[in-house]
Known about the structure:
There is one protein chain. With 93 residues, the chain is mainly alpha-helical. The protein has three helices and no strands. It has helices at 7-31, 38-44, 53-85. It is elongated and about 55 Å long. 11% of the residues are buried.
Amino acid sequence: MNTRISLAAVGHATSIFLTTTFTLCVVFDLAFPEHAMYSVWQKLLPGFEWISWKSFLIGFVETYGYGWYIALIWVPIYNVFASRSGRCTCDNK
């Protein structure tokens, strides 16, 4: 039984999730400026300012990069532990 997960699949999936979330948050901030969260994005994303196309592109690229950062750390750790748990030679009766 193969318990390993694909780095590429997790990297792209996590990155797309984060860029979608970022885009939805920017749309929410534009629709409801009294509840805007852009100050949080300014702290998390270097170079992000409120709001221009250049700034949005910077935030989009950085959130995509954060997705890969998460995958590069998480997937190998998961695969190590998954392979160790699959090596059990105990006799379960």
